[in-house]
Amino acid sequence: MALRARNIHLDDVLTTERPCIAWREFSESRPPRWQKLISGRYLGEILRLIICELTDKGVLFLGQNTYKIEKAYSFDTAFLSLMESDRREELLMIISIFTHFFALGATLAERQFFRALARLVGRRAPRLSACGITAIVGKMRYLEEGSVGGADGSLSNK
């Protein structure tokens, strides 16, 4: 994983095989397809696994019972969008997500980290989509003919 949040390099923090295990479980339960890599279900799981890893290392949710967030696929993709779009200084949407769904309290620093993490993980799907589209267009030799492509909606905003 090559995610960065300010001066924190998650490669240095995340040392277990959780993301690999999650992908193995995910691909064994369904046929592994390129679309699954950018699916919302897996993106939510990536974020949840990072949070669980940092919780195990004693970085997040100190002294709190985290059993609800440790359940596989419990972190809905909609949470990523809500966390990413929370514009308030207190990050009240992130407070409500962790309080209501996981019975966890988060400090302001943790909430800021979660928003940055949601932004990083959320960029994965549009970038992989763009790679797929570029590969198809290149294979069909449309680029050589001078064709121009475009995207709309949230894909172009990422």
TrEMBL record:
<dbReference type="GO" id="GO:0008865">
    <property type="term" value="F:fructokinase activity"/>
</dbReference>
<feature type="domain" description="Hexokinase C-terminal">
    <location>
        <begin position="35"/>
        <end position="157"/>
    </location>
</feature>
<comment type="pathway">
    <text>Carbohydrate degradation; glycolysis; D-glyceraldehyde 3-phosphate and glycerone phosphate from D-glucose: step 1/4.</text>
</comment>
<keyword id="KW-0808">Transferase</keyword>
<dbReference type="InterPro" id="IPR043129">
    <property type="entry name" value="ATPase_NBD"/>
</dbReference>
<dbReference type="GO" id="GO:0006006">
    <property type="term" value="P:glucose metabolic process"/>
</dbReference>
<comment type="similarity">
    <text>Belongs to the hexokinase family.</text>
</comment>
<dbReference type="Pfam" id="PF03727">
    <property type="entry name" value="Hexokinase_2"/>
</dbReference>
<dbReference type="GO" id="GO:0005536">
    <property type="term" value="F:D-glucose binding"/>
</dbReference>
<protein>
    <recommendedName>
        <fullName>Phosphotransferase</fullName>
        <ecNumber>2.7.1.-</ecNumber>
    </recommendedName>
</protein>
<keyword id="KW-0547">Nucleotide-binding</keyword>
<keyword id="KW-0324">Glycolysis</keyword>
<dbReference type="InterPro" id="IPR022673">
    <property type="entry name" value="Hexokinase_C"/>
</dbReference>
<dbReference type="GO" id="GO:0005524">
    <property type="term" value="F:ATP binding"/>
</dbReference>
<dbReference type="GO" id="GO:0006096">
    <property type="term" value="P:glycolytic process"/>
</dbReference>
<dbReference type="InterPro" id="IPR001312">
    <property type="entry name" value="Hexokinase"/>
</dbReference>
<dbReference type="GO" id="GO:0019158">
    <property type="term" value="F:mannokinase activity"/>
</dbReference>
<keyword id="KW-0067">ATP-binding</keyword>
<dbReference type="GO" id="GO:0001678">
    <property type="term" value="P:intracellular glucose homeostasis"/>
</dbReference>
<dbReference type="GO" id="GO:0005829">
    <property type="term" value="C:cytosol"/>
</dbReference>
<keyword id="KW-0418">Kinase</keyword>
<dbReference type="GO" id="GO:0004340">
    <property type="term" value="F:glucokinase activity"/>
</dbReference>
<comment type="pathway">
    <text>Carbohydrate metabolism; hexose metabolism.</text>
</comment>
<dbReference type="GO" id="GO:0005739">
    <property type="term" value="C:mitochondrion"/>
</dbReference>
<dbReference type="GO" id="GO:0006013">
    <property type="term" value="P:mannose metabolic process"/>
</dbReference>
